[in-house]
Design goal:
Layout: H1 3-137
Length: about 140
């Protein structure tokens, strides 16, 4: 065996080893590509489910926000109504006070008129009786 034959034998063994290594590497790369593809498919499926849940959550949040807006508007309306009722009650209180004062003044005037009428009737009766009795004496 000559050096060339040994050298060719070493090169052949190295080439066979390289081919075996490359075949093993190609198999491992194929497994890795299948695993990566499986991972991506699972991730895609999970992302689709998550996206659907996020969309549903956003719709629910939008409904809640709309409801909060409606409640806020209702509270504003209620506050305005309470303010109007308060103003109405204040006006009513003022009117009741005015009516009470008018009734009190009317009562005082009525009492004065009754006393005046009583005094007038009494005086008129006394004058009538005096004239009646005075005309009989003559």
């Amino acid at each position: 065996m000559t050096a060339n034959e040994v050298f060719l034998g070493v090169i052949t063994v190295a080439a066979v080893a390289l081919v075996i290594f490359l075949a093993w590497l190609i198999l491992k790369l194929g497994e890795m590509i299948r695993a990566a593809r499986q991972f991506l498919e699972e991730t895609d499926r999970t992302m689709k489910q998550t996206t659907g849940e996020v969309n549903e959550s956003l719709r629910s949040l939008r409904v809640i926000t709309d409801n909060v807006g409606a409640v806020t508007n209702d509270v504003k309306t209620l506050t305005g109504s309470i303010r109007e009722v308060t103003q109405g009650v204040q006006q009513l209180t003022g009117s009741v006070k005015d009516i009470g004062k008018a009734v009190q003044d009317l009562g005082a005037e009525t009492v004065a008129s009754v006393y005046g009428l009583r005094a007038g009737v009494k005086t008129g009766f006394e004058v009538f009786m005096k004239n009646l009795l005075g005309s009989k004496q003559e």
